[in-house]
Predict the 3D structure of the following.
Amino acid sequence: MTPLSVVKLPPAVSISELSARLDELLPHIGSGASERERNRELPYEAIASLARAGIYTTRIPVKYGGPGGSVSDVIGFLLRIASVDSNVAQALRPGLGFVEGLLASRAEGIEEDRQCWFERYLQGAVLGNAGWEIGGANGAVSARIVRDGKHFRANGSKYYSTGSLYADWVSAVALDENDQPVSFILPRDREGLVLLDDFDAMGQRLTASGTTHLNNVQVFAHEIRVRAVEEGKRSIVTPFLQLFLGTVIAGIARNALNDAVVFARDHARPIKHSSAERSVDDPYVELSVGDISARAFTAEAVVLHAARAIDRAWAQDLTPASVDQAAIDVAQAQYSAAQAGLKAAELVFDVGGASTTGRRHNLDRHWRNARTVANHNPRQWKAAAVGAWQLKGTPPPTSGLF
Protein backbone atom coordinates (compact mmCIF):
# COMPACT_ATOMS: atom_id res chain seq x y z
CA MET A 1 0.00 0.00 0.00
CA THR A 2 1.27 3.48 -0.85
CA PRO A 3 1.85 5.53 2.33
CA LEU A 4 -0.57 8.40 2.74
CA SER A 5 2.42 10.76 3.02
CA VAL A 6 3.13 10.56 -0.72
CA VAL A 7 -0.48 10.88 -1.88
CA LYS A 8 -1.76 14.29 -2.94
CA LEU A 9 -5.08 14.68 -1.14
CA PRO A 10 -7.93 17.12 -1.75
CA PRO A 11 -8.93 19.33 1.19
CA ALA A 12 -10.77 17.38 3.88
CA VAL A 13 -14.47 18.15 4.04
CA SER A 14 -15.14 16.84 7.53
CA ILE A 15 -13.48 16.21 10.87
CA SER A 16 -14.17 12.49 10.55
CA GLU A 17 -12.27 12.44 7.26
CA LEU A 18 -9.34 14.25 8.86
CA SER A 19 -9.40 11.77 11.72
CA ALA A 20 -9.29 8.83 9.33
CA ARG A 21 -6.32 10.34 7.50
CA LEU A 22 -4.54 10.85 10.80
CA ASP A 23 -5.18 7.22 11.78
CA GLU A 24 -3.36 6.14 8.64
CA LEU A 25 -0.43 8.51 9.15
CA LEU A 26 0.35 7.97 12.82
CA PRO A 27 2.00 4.54 12.49
CA HIS A 28 4.38 5.96 9.86
CA ILE A 29 5.25 8.96 12.06
CA GLY A 30 5.65 6.94 15.25
CA SER A 31 7.71 4.09 13.82
CA GLY A 32 10.90 6.12 13.50
CA ALA A 33 10.40 8.73 16.21
CA SER A 34 12.85 7.36 18.78
CA GLU A 35 15.60 6.80 16.22
CA ARG A 36 15.07 10.25 14.70
CA GLU A 37 15.38 11.82 18.12
CA ARG A 38 18.51 9.85 18.97
CA ASN A 39 20.22 10.69 15.66
CA ARG A 40 18.90 14.26 15.23
CA GLU A 41 17.10 13.47 11.99
CA LEU A 42 14.57 16.24 11.37
CA PRO A 43 11.06 14.90 10.59
CA TYR A 44 10.54 16.80 7.34
CA GLU A 45 8.34 14.13 5.81
CA ALA A 46 6.17 13.77 8.93
CA ILE A 47 5.33 17.48 8.92
CA ALA A 48 4.74 17.54 5.18
CA SER A 49 2.48 14.51 5.34
CA LEU A 50 0.33 16.07 8.08
CA ALA A 51 0.03 19.25 6.03
CA ARG A 52 -0.97 17.31 2.94
CA ALA A 53 -3.51 15.38 4.99
CA GLY A 54 -5.06 18.70 6.07
CA ILE A 55 -4.33 18.80 9.81
CA TYR A 56 -3.53 22.52 9.59
CA THR A 57 -7.00 23.13 8.12
CA THR A 58 -8.94 21.65 11.07
CA ARG A 59 -10.31 25.01 12.25
CA ILE A 60 -10.90 26.61 8.86
CA PRO A 61 -14.65 27.34 8.61
CA VAL A 62 -16.85 25.54 6.11
CA LYS A 63 -17.57 28.79 4.23
CA TYR A 64 -13.87 29.00 3.34
CA GLY A 65 -13.72 25.36 2.24
CA GLY A 66 -12.47 23.85 5.50
CA PRO A 67 -13.99 21.20 7.79
CA GLY A 68 -15.06 23.75 10.42
CA GLY A 69 -13.64 21.93 13.44
CA SER A 70 -13.55 23.07 17.05
CA VAL A 71 -10.63 23.73 19.37
CA SER A 72 -11.47 20.41 21.01
CA ASP A 73 -10.96 18.75 17.63
CA VAL A 74 -7.53 20.36 17.26
CA ILE A 75 -6.48 19.34 20.77
CA GLY A 76 -7.75 15.80 20.22
CA PHE A 77 -5.68 15.48 17.04
CA LEU A 78 -2.66 17.01 18.74
CA LEU A 79 -2.86 14.54 21.62
CA ARG A 80 -2.72 11.68 19.16
CA ILE A 81 0.24 13.14 17.27
CA ALA A 82 2.18 13.96 20.45
CA SER A 83 1.64 10.42 21.74
CA VAL A 84 3.82 9.13 18.89
CA ASP A 85 6.23 12.08 18.39
CA SER A 86 6.12 15.20 20.57
CA ASN A 87 8.64 16.99 18.34
CA VAL A 88 6.32 16.75 15.36
CA ALA A 89 3.36 17.86 17.46
CA GLN A 90 5.08 20.96 18.80
CA ALA A 91 6.34 21.94 15.35
CA LEU A 92 2.69 22.39 14.34
CA ARG A 93 2.14 25.11 16.95
CA PRO A 94 2.94 28.23 14.86
CA GLY A 95 0.82 27.11 11.93
CA LEU A 96 -2.23 26.16 13.99
CA GLY A 97 -1.85 29.22 16.20
CA PHE A 98 -1.79 31.43 13.11
CA VAL A 99 -5.15 30.05 12.00
CA GLU A 100 -6.55 30.77 15.45
CA GLY A 101 -5.30 34.35 15.19
CA LEU A 102 -7.00 34.81 11.83
CA LEU A 103 -10.26 33.55 13.28
CA ALA A 104 -10.09 35.70 16.42
CA SER A 105 -8.94 39.00 14.94
CA ARG A 106 -11.42 41.80 14.39
CA ALA A 107 -8.83 44.12 12.86
CA GLU A 108 -9.48 46.04 9.69
CA GLY A 109 -8.28 44.09 6.66
CA ILE A 110 -8.34 40.71 8.40
CA GLU A 111 -10.90 39.27 5.97
CA GLU A 112 -8.47 39.62 3.09
CA ASP A 113 -5.83 37.86 5.19
CA ARG A 114 -8.25 35.05 5.99
CA GLN A 115 -9.12 34.40 2.38
CA CYS A 116 -5.48 34.43 1.33
CA TRP A 117 -4.11 32.22 4.08
CA PHE A 118 -6.99 29.79 4.39
CA GLU A 119 -6.62 28.99 0.70
CA ARG A 120 -2.87 28.46 1.11
CA TYR A 121 -3.48 26.12 4.04
CA LEU A 122 -6.05 24.18 2.06
CA GLN A 123 -3.40 23.69 -0.61
CA GLY A 124 -0.99 22.23 1.97
CA ALA A 125 1.13 25.23 3.00
CA VAL A 126 3.17 25.08 6.22
CA LEU A 127 3.92 28.18 8.30
CA GLY A 128 6.73 28.54 10.84
CA ASN A 129 7.65 31.14 13.44
CA ALA A 130 10.56 33.54 13.90
CA GLY A 131 9.24 35.96 16.47
CA TRP A 132 11.23 35.49 19.68
CA GLU A 133 14.77 36.46 20.57
CA ILE A 134 17.40 35.52 23.16
CA GLY A 135 18.34 38.02 25.84
CA GLY A 136 15.41 40.42 25.66
CA ALA A 137 13.78 40.89 29.07
CA ASN A 138 10.01 40.28 29.14
CA GLY A 139 9.99 39.20 25.51
CA ALA A 140 11.63 42.38 24.17
CA VAL A 141 12.34 42.49 20.42
CA SER A 142 15.48 44.06 18.94
CA ALA A 143 15.05 43.14 15.25
CA ARG A 144 14.34 46.16 13.07
CA ILE A 145 12.30 46.85 9.95
CA VAL A 146 12.79 50.10 8.02
CA ARG A 147 11.32 51.59 4.89
CA ASP A 148 13.13 51.00 1.61
CA GLY A 149 11.23 52.94 -1.04
CA LYS A 150 7.75 51.46 -1.34
CA HIS A 151 8.79 48.39 0.61
CA PHE A 152 10.91 47.47 3.66
CA ARG A 153 14.14 45.85 4.83
CA ALA A 154 14.43 43.73 7.99
CA ASN A 155 17.51 42.92 10.06
CA GLY A 156 18.02 40.92 13.23
CA SER A 157 18.34 37.45 14.68
CA LYS A 158 15.59 35.29 16.15
CA TYR A 159 15.56 32.15 18.23
CA TYR A 160 12.88 29.61 19.20
CA SER A 161 11.89 29.60 15.51
CA THR A 162 9.60 26.63 16.00
CA GLY A 163 8.78 24.74 12.83
CA SER A 164 10.47 27.16 10.44
CA LEU A 165 12.84 24.63 8.88
CA TYR A 166 9.77 22.64 7.81
CA ALA A 167 7.85 25.66 6.56
CA ASP A 168 6.98 27.23 3.23
CA TRP A 169 6.38 30.56 4.95
CA VAL A 170 8.02 32.18 7.99
CA SER A 171 6.20 34.64 10.24
CA ALA A 172 8.38 37.25 11.96
CA VAL A 173 8.12 40.46 13.97
CA ALA A 174 10.41 43.49 14.13
CA LEU A 175 10.26 47.05 15.44
CA ASP A 176 9.74 49.97 13.06
CA GLU A 177 11.23 53.47 13.26
CA ASN A 178 8.70 54.31 16.00
CA ASP A 179 9.58 51.21 18.05
CA GLN A 180 6.25 49.65 17.21
CA PRO A 181 6.04 45.91 16.47
CA VAL A 182 5.40 45.01 12.84
CA SER A 183 4.41 41.50 11.76
CA PHE A 184 5.27 40.12 8.34
CA ILE A 185 5.40 36.77 6.56
CA LEU A 186 8.13 35.79 4.13
CA PRO A 187 8.49 32.88 1.73
CA ARG A 188 11.04 30.36 2.99
CA ASP A 189 13.41 30.96 0.06
CA ARG A 190 13.63 34.77 0.38
CA GLU A 191 17.22 36.00 -0.05
CA GLY A 192 18.74 36.94 3.30
CA LEU A 193 16.43 34.69 5.33
CA VAL A 194 18.74 32.13 6.95
CA LEU A 195 17.43 29.28 9.11
CA LEU A 196 19.73 27.15 11.26
CA ASP A 197 19.26 23.80 12.96
CA ASP A 198 21.04 24.84 16.15
CA PHE A 199 18.40 24.38 18.86
CA ASP A 200 20.45 23.04 21.76
CA ALA A 201 17.86 22.17 24.41
CA MET A 202 18.13 18.78 26.09
CA GLY A 203 14.71 17.82 24.69
CA GLN A 204 12.37 18.64 21.79
CA ARG A 205 15.48 18.95 19.62
CA LEU A 206 13.64 18.23 16.39
CA THR A 207 11.11 21.05 16.65
CA ALA A 208 13.40 23.22 14.47
CA SER A 209 13.35 25.88 17.18
CA GLY A 210 16.76 27.33 16.45
CA THR A 211 18.09 30.56 14.95
CA THR A 212 16.62 32.62 12.14
CA HIS A 213 18.75 35.42 10.71
CA LEU A 214 17.16 38.36 8.90
CA ASN A 215 20.07 39.65 6.83
CA ASN A 216 18.77 42.81 5.20
CA VAL A 217 15.77 40.82 4.01
CA GLN A 218 13.41 42.57 1.64
CA VAL A 219 9.84 42.70 2.92
CA PHE A 220 7.28 43.73 0.34
CA ALA A 221 4.48 46.02 1.45
CA HIS A 222 1.84 43.33 0.86
CA GLU A 223 3.74 40.98 3.19
CA ILE A 224 3.07 43.22 6.19
CA ARG A 225 0.10 41.70 7.98
CA VAL A 226 -2.49 42.71 10.48
CA ARG A 227 -1.41 41.89 14.04
CA ALA A 228 -3.92 39.40 15.43
CA VAL A 229 -2.78 39.78 19.05
CA GLU A 230 -2.00 43.20 20.52
CA GLU A 231 0.19 43.70 23.57
CA GLY A 232 -1.79 44.38 26.74
CA LYS A 233 -5.08 43.13 25.31
CA ARG A 234 -6.81 39.88 26.16
CA SER A 235 -7.03 37.38 23.29
CA ILE A 236 -8.37 33.86 23.02
CA VAL A 237 -5.29 33.02 20.96
CA THR A 238 -2.95 33.02 23.95
CA PRO A 239 -4.92 30.40 25.94
CA PHE A 240 -4.97 28.30 22.76
CA LEU A 241 -1.19 28.52 22.38
CA GLN A 242 -0.65 27.74 26.05
CA LEU A 243 -3.03 24.78 25.92
CA PHE A 244 -1.02 23.54 22.95
CA LEU A 245 2.02 23.15 25.23
CA GLY A 246 0.03 21.33 27.90
CA THR A 247 -1.35 19.00 25.26
CA VAL A 248 2.11 18.13 23.98
CA ILE A 249 3.09 17.15 27.53
CA ALA A 250 -0.06 15.05 27.85
CA GLY A 251 0.91 13.28 24.63
CA ILE A 252 4.39 12.65 26.00
CA ALA A 253 2.80 10.98 29.06
CA ARG A 254 0.81 8.67 26.77
CA ASN A 255 3.94 7.90 24.74
CA ALA A 256 5.79 7.09 27.96
CA LEU A 257 3.00 4.72 28.96
CA ASN A 258 3.13 2.95 25.61
CA ASP A 259 6.90 2.50 25.89
CA ALA A 260 6.62 1.30 29.49
CA VAL A 261 4.17 -1.40 28.44
CA VAL A 262 6.36 -2.54 25.54
CA PHE A 263 9.47 -2.61 27.72
CA ALA A 264 7.79 -4.59 30.49
CA ARG A 265 6.38 -7.09 28.02
CA ASP A 266 9.34 -7.51 25.68
CA HIS A 267 12.54 -6.56 27.51
CA ALA A 268 12.24 -6.60 31.29
CA ARG A 269 13.00 -9.62 33.47
CA PRO A 270 12.08 -10.11 37.12
CA ILE A 271 14.63 -9.10 39.73
CA LYS A 272 16.19 -11.85 41.83
CA HIS A 273 13.81 -11.64 44.77
CA SER A 274 10.66 -10.98 42.75
CA SER A 275 7.61 -13.09 43.50
CA ALA A 276 6.87 -13.34 39.77
CA GLU A 277 8.35 -15.42 36.97
CA ARG A 278 7.51 -12.74 34.38
CA SER A 279 7.93 -8.99 34.76
CA VAL A 280 4.33 -8.37 33.70
CA ASP A 281 3.24 -10.38 36.76
CA ASP A 282 5.47 -8.50 39.20
CA PRO A 283 3.14 -6.42 41.43
CA TYR A 284 5.55 -3.48 41.48
CA VAL A 285 5.81 -3.42 37.70
CA GLU A 286 2.01 -3.53 37.57
CA LEU A 287 1.90 -0.68 40.07
CA SER A 288 4.38 1.41 38.08
CA VAL A 289 2.52 0.94 34.80
CA GLY A 290 -0.80 1.67 36.51
CA ASP A 291 0.66 4.84 38.02
CA ILE A 292 1.96 6.01 34.63
CA SER A 293 -1.39 5.21 33.05
CA ALA A 294 -3.32 7.21 35.65
CA ARG A 295 -1.05 10.21 35.15
CA ALA A 296 -1.41 10.05 31.36
CA PHE A 297 -5.17 9.75 31.80
CA THR A 298 -5.20 12.81 34.06
CA ALA A 299 -3.10 14.91 31.70
CA GLU A 300 -5.33 14.06 28.75
CA ALA A 301 -8.51 14.75 30.71
CA VAL A 302 -7.46 18.21 31.88
CA VAL A 303 -6.32 19.45 28.48
CA LEU A 304 -9.52 18.24 26.84
CA HIS A 305 -11.52 19.94 29.60
CA ALA A 306 -9.66 23.21 28.97
CA ALA A 307 -10.25 22.87 25.22
CA ARG A 308 -13.97 22.81 25.88
CA ALA A 309 -13.60 26.01 27.90
CA ILE A 310 -12.07 27.73 24.85
CA ASP A 311 -14.89 26.38 22.68
CA ARG A 312 -17.41 27.80 25.17
CA ALA A 313 -15.71 31.19 24.90
CA TRP A 314 -16.12 31.06 21.13
CA ALA A 315 -19.78 30.06 21.56
CA GLN A 316 -20.24 33.14 23.79
CA ASP A 317 -18.74 35.40 21.12
CA LEU A 318 -15.48 35.78 23.08
CA THR A 319 -16.94 37.91 25.85
CA PRO A 320 -14.26 39.15 28.30
CA ALA A 321 -15.62 36.93 31.07
CA SER A 322 -15.59 33.81 28.89
CA VAL A 323 -12.04 34.46 27.67
CA ASP A 324 -10.83 35.07 31.23
CA GLN A 325 -12.41 31.79 32.33
CA ALA A 326 -10.78 29.96 29.42
CA ALA A 327 -7.39 31.42 30.37
CA ILE A 328 -7.84 30.25 33.97
CA ASP A 329 -8.92 26.77 32.90
CA VAL A 330 -5.93 26.49 30.56
CA ALA A 331 -3.54 27.64 33.31
CA GLN A 332 -4.86 24.91 35.61
CA ALA A 333 -4.65 22.34 32.83
CA GLN A 334 -1.05 23.30 32.07
CA TYR A 335 -0.07 23.06 35.71
CA SER A 336 -1.68 19.65 36.16
CA ALA A 337 -0.50 18.25 32.82
CA ALA A 338 3.10 19.26 33.55
CA GLN A 339 3.01 17.64 36.99
CA ALA A 340 1.48 14.45 35.62
CA GLY A 341 3.60 14.27 32.49
CA LEU A 342 6.93 14.81 34.20
CA LYS A 343 6.20 12.13 36.79
CA ALA A 344 4.91 9.69 34.18
CA ALA A 345 8.11 10.14 32.17
CA GLU A 346 10.20 9.50 35.30
CA LEU A 347 8.30 6.37 36.30
CA VAL A 348 9.08 4.64 33.00
CA PHE A 349 12.38 3.59 34.56
CA ASP A 350 10.58 1.71 37.34
CA VAL A 351 9.31 -1.01 34.98
CA GLY A 352 12.80 -2.53 34.74
CA GLY A 353 16.29 -2.34 36.12
CA ALA A 354 19.44 -0.77 34.75
CA SER A 355 18.54 -1.93 31.25
CA THR A 356 15.82 0.74 31.05
CA THR A 357 18.57 3.35 30.83
CA GLY A 358 20.12 1.82 27.70
CA ARG A 359 20.60 4.32 24.88
CA ARG A 360 19.06 1.96 22.37
CA HIS A 361 15.74 2.23 24.20
CA ASN A 362 16.00 6.04 24.46
CA LEU A 363 13.42 6.12 27.24
CA ASP A 364 14.98 9.24 28.72
CA ARG A 365 13.63 11.25 25.79
CA HIS A 366 10.20 11.33 27.42
CA TRP A 367 11.42 13.16 30.52
CA ARG A 368 13.78 15.41 28.54
CA ASN A 369 11.00 16.35 26.14
CA ALA A 370 8.41 16.92 28.88
CA ARG A 371 10.85 18.97 30.95
CA THR A 372 11.73 21.14 27.93
CA VAL A 373 8.09 21.84 27.06
CA ALA A 374 7.23 22.53 30.71
CA ASN A 375 10.02 25.09 30.89
CA HIS A 376 8.45 27.25 28.19
CA ASN A 377 6.42 29.01 30.86
CA PRO A 378 7.13 28.58 34.60
CA ARG A 379 4.12 26.74 35.95
CA GLN A 380 4.44 28.47 39.33
CA TRP A 381 3.09 31.60 37.62
CA LYS A 382 0.13 29.59 36.39
CA ALA A 383 -0.79 28.40 39.86
CA ALA A 384 -0.29 31.87 41.36
CA ALA A 385 -2.58 33.46 38.76
CA VAL A 386 -5.25 30.86 39.45
CA GLY A 387 -4.89 31.50 43.18
CA ALA A 388 -5.32 35.26 42.70
CA TRP A 389 -8.44 34.56 40.62
CA GLN A 390 -9.93 32.30 43.29
CA LEU A 391 -9.03 34.59 46.20
CA LYS A 392 -9.72 38.03 44.77
CA GLY A 393 -11.28 37.59 41.32
CA THR A 394 -8.11 39.02 39.75
CA PRO A 395 -8.07 38.34 35.99
CA PRO A 396 -4.98 36.57 34.67
CA PRO A 397 -2.24 38.79 33.18
CA THR A 398 -2.66 40.01 29.63
CA SER A 399 0.51 38.45 28.31
CA GLY A 400 1.49 35.63 26.04
CA LEU A 401 1.56 33.28 29.01
CA PHE A 402 -2.21 33.30 29.72
Summary: Residues 1-6 have pLDDT under 50 and may be disordered. Strands lie at 127-130, 144-148, 151-158, 169-175, 181-187, 193-195, 212-219, 224-225. Residues 283-315 form the longest helix (33 residues).
